[in-house]
Write a structure and sequence with these properties.
The structure is a single chain. The chain is an all-beta fold. It has no helices and 11 strands. It has strands at about 5, 10-15, 20-25, 35-40, 45-50, 60-65, 70-75, 80-85, 95-100, 120, 125-129. The strands form 2 sheets. Strands 2, 4, 5, 6, 9, 10 and 11 form a 7-stranded mixed β-sheet that branches. Strands 1-3-8-7 form a 4-stranded antiparallel β-sheet, with no helix packed on it.
Amino acid sequence: QVQLVESGGGLVQAGGSLRLSCAASGRTFSSYAMGWFRQAPGKERDFVAGISRSGGITDFTDYADAVKGRFTISRDNAKNMVYLQMNSLKPEDTAVYYCAADRNPTTIVRRRGPLYDYWGQGTQVTVSS
């Protein structure tokens, strides 16, 4: 069982930055691929960014086209943390952001939410124009 708790959301002006954090419980954090998803009002939950499980030479990352070049996902296995650095924020980035853990044993980052096993409660990000 993994518990995930997000933090770092808030209100920011367009062009600004926020850093989301996700704290994970459990002793096997490094064996999970981690993802960030977001859900805007009236819309489906969408993949934002993901990072593979650790253990290889490097961690693989993947990003949705809408955030590529602006957002960066990273993980600190010693602290059981995953982060989402969000720069050049736009009003269309406004959503509830969720952290999720995937027991996927490969180094592939999966984009489909139903494949993830554990979810946090979400943190609100609001970008004003």
